[in-house]
Write a structure and sequence with these properties.
It contains 11 helices and 24 strands. The protein has 452 residues and is of the alpha/beta class. The chain folds into 2 domains: 190 residues, Lyase, Ornithine Decarboxylase, Chain A, domain 1; 252 residues, Alanine racemase (TIM Barrel, Alpha-Beta Barrel). Helix 8 packs parallel to helix 9. The chain is elongated and about 70 Å long. The chain starts with a strand and ends in a 13-residue tail after the last strand.
């Protein structure tokens, strides 16, 4: 069987081939008979007939390969990958990554609870986030999974007020000596980066972290604390970053802070540099992961710190597609609309981040051709912002045709909602020639569960 090219034009991006950057998904067939999209050893048209649409489909092999490649890239320095649970917190995804040896980054008590559910030890959890509640901090100090009762691995503190709460809770629980919680301060390195303003986090006007003057004051003020132990420093400059340069600038500034604290007698073991490495959705040029790793390793290795990284999108983004079926097509004001059964409640990235995803038909005829004019792929939600793609060059599509929205494994289901009283989609994991539903499609009755 010969692989046939799938082409798409999203948001004026030019024609791209999504199979070129998601190798576990490919079109199989012959020119005379057309082609169909497969994930590993599973035909997606057949899977959709069994599971229904909309559905998220993930390739297990893609997740494994991405994790292992990133881990190998940092072989030159002591390091830990702490998967960002917010990217995709499905229990099966978390179990898989835990099996691969991943640690985890969480930003809420709910994410901690998901890790507890799959048996992840506290020693594998970093707790980040600008708005930890007292209850969540207490929960993290008391975290228990199996025999592990020592609390979580590391707190990344983001304000003086949060630090005071952590100290109060540690004192209340009598966590002194070797039982003190390990703590880092997240500093804001004042670097502009990120694929969209909503996912840029390291500039001085953002809500995240502290400027170095305030962070240094806190480190020194609590250098001999009875209730916490300074173990690290943290920084995260944004998400979907497509250049290595801002990473190099930021890591240089963080390393300078580590050196300054050492001169003050505070020696830190961990340097948590977050995540943010960008991936290709349409026509972007993604950074070379080995170059990214060399940049960080060269800065951190001479300082003797263990490097913590918090990848999410890079590991699971390319591993998933969103399957959706065409309901209708219509013309309106010279524009062609392809109306599908997935909507902004299933995938909010296009309207929230102005994100572009490649969109293609799952089954393509032998004479498949792109439309001469672009179409908008839209959903049933009652909002003008309900679109999966604008100005998409799509093969001729009609009612009943199955479409794939590519690179949807990260921030797809995890940001979905029940807006317009729509049940959330199913999630499916493919492993070789087998597949299984890893989250059942919500039923209508689930929409009012817990209400009176």
């Amino acid at each position: 069987m010969n692989s046939m090219t799938a082409k798409n034009h999203a948001g004026g991006a030019g024609v791209v081939d999504p199979t070129s950057f998601t190798p576990e998904f490919e079109y199989r067939g012959r020119k005379q008979a057309g082609a169909a999209l497969w994930c590993e050893g599973v035909a997606l048209e057949e899977l959709a007939r069994e599971v229904g649409t909309p559905s998220y489909v993930y390739s297990r092999a893609s997740i494994v390969k991405a994790y292992q490649r990133l881990d190998r890239a940092f072989h030159g320095v002591q390091h830990s990958l702490c998967y960002a649970v917010k990217a995709n917190g499905n229990l099966s995804v978390l179990r898989l990554l835990a099996k691969l040896g991943s640690k985890f980054d969480v930003v809420s008590g709910g994410e901690m609870a998901r890790l507890r559910k799959v048996g992840v030890r506290g020693a594998s959890i970093v707790f980040s986030g600008v708005g930890k509640t007292r209850e969540e901090i207490r929960e993290a100090l008391l975290y228990r999974a199996g025999r592990d009762t020592a609390g979580i691995f590391l707190f990344n503190v983001e304000s003086a007020a949060e630090l005071e709460v952590l100290i109060e809770e540690s004192a209340r629980l009598g966590r002194t000596g070797e039982k003190r919680p390990a703590v880092s301060i997240r500093i804001n390195p004042d670097v502009r980066a990120g694929g969209h303003a909503h996912i840029s986090t390291g500039y001085r006007q953002h809500k995240f972290g502290l400027d170095w003057i305030e962070a240094r004051r806190l480190y020194l003020a609590h250098a001999n604390s009875k209730w916490i132990a300074w173990r690290g420093i943290s920084a995260h400059i944004g998400s979907q970053i497509l250049s290595v340069e801002p990473f190099g600038t930021a890591i240089g500034r963080v390393v300078e802070c580590v050196q300054e604290l050492r001169r003050e007698g505070i020696s830190l073991h961990y340097l948590d540099f977050g995540g943010g490495l960008g991936i290709r959705y349409t026509d972007e040029v993604a950074p070379d992961v080995e170059q990214y790793a060399r940049t960080l390793v060269d800065a951190v290795k001479p300082r003797g710190c263990e490097l913590l990284l918090e990848p999410g999108r890079w590991i699971v983004g390319p591993a998933g597609v969103l399957l959706t079926r065409v309901l209708y097509t219509k013309e309106n004001g010279g524009k062609t609309f392809v109306i599908v059964d997935a909507a902004m409640n299933d995938l909010i990235r296009p309207v929230l981040y102005e994100a572009r995803h490649a969109i293609t038909k799952v089954s393509r005829g032998a004479d498949a051709a792109l439309r001469e004019s672009a179409v908008d792929v839209v959903g049933p939600v009652c909002e003008t912002g309900d679109f999966l793609g604008r100005d998409v060059l799509l093969e001729e599509a009609g009612a009943g045709d199955l479409l794939a929205v590519w690179t949807a494994g990260a921030y797809g289901f995890s940001e979905s909602s029940n807006y317009n009283a729509r049940p959330r989609a199913a999630e499916v994991m493919v492993e070789g020639r087998k597949w299984r539903v890893i989250r059942k499609r919500e039923a209508i009755a689930d929409l009012w569960r817990g209400e009176e």
